[in-house]
């Protein structure tokens, strides 16, 4: 699933629903939901050894793959598969230096760029990929076997 594919899906869904109720979250919104009020490396603490309770990870390309959502422990706000399973596209352009100068509250992301951002890690990434703050960039037309998205539904 590419970022472009996600945008096409969202446009069709909004067309069926009669409005612009659905979109990808910004990076800031994604991280806020993923952290669920915590300040640790993961929403469940700092101990990487507990990752297996919360994430599908460490699988190889020959035998691994995505898994049904909800079979691992949720974060404190009840969100499942924040870590591992599939990288999640967010709305933002990627800028490695953006957060050094962005607003401290509700940053909206860079106005332009050449690549888009995924968050959350996947079933095959290395352990550093699952920390809540970790981010990665891809071209908006890149389709990976371990990339998906999580929708944000606006109120109203």
Describe it.
It is a single chain. The protein is of the alpha+beta class. It has one domain: paralog of FGE (formylglycine-generating enzyme) (Alpha-Beta Complex), CATH 3.90.1580. Helices cover 21% and strands 14% of the residues. It is built from four helices and six strands. It has helices at 3-17, 27-35, 51-54, 98-101; strands at residues 22-23, 87-93, 116-119, 135-138, 147-149, 152-153. The protein has a four-stranded mixed β-sheet with strand order 4-3-2-5, covered by helices on one side. The protein is globular. The relative contact order is 0.25. The model has no long low-confidence stretch (mean pLDDT 92).
Proportion of residues in extended strands? 5-15%
Oligomer: single chain
Largest sheet: 4 strands, mixed
- Going across the biggest sheet, name each strand in turn: 4-3-2-5
**What is the H level of CATH, i.e. the homologous superfamily?**
paralog of FGE (formylglycine-generating enzyme)
Looking at the overall shape, the CATH architecture is Alpha-Beta Complex
CATH topology: paralog of FGE (formylglycine-generating enzyme)
Helix content: 10-25%
Secondary structural class = alpha+beta
Instruction: Domain count, please report it.
Output: 1
Overall pLDDT: 92
- Would you identify the regions where 5 or more consecutive residues have pLDDT less than 50? none
At the first level of CATH, what is the class? Answer: Alpha Beta
Envelope shape: globular
């Amino acid at each position: 699933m590419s970022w472009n594919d996600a945008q096409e899906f969202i446009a069709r869904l909004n067309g069926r629903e009669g409005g612009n109720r659905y979109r990808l979250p910004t990076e800031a919104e994604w991280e806020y939901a993923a952290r669920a009020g915590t300040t640790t490396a993961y929403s469940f603490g700092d101990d990487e050894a507990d990752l297996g309770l919360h994430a599908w990870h460490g699988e190889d390309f020959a035998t691994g793959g995505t898994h049904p959502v909800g079979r691992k422990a949720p974060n404190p706000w009840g969100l499942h598969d924040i870590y591992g399973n599939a990288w999640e596209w967010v709305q933002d352009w990627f800028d490695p230096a953006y957060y050094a100068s962005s607003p401290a509250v509700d940053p909206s992301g860079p106005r332009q760029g050449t690549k888009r951002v995924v968050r959350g890690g996947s079933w095959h990434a290395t352990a550093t990929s699952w920390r809540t703050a970790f981010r990665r960039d891809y071209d908006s037309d890149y389709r990976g076997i371990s990339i998906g998205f999580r929708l944000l539904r606006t109120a109203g």
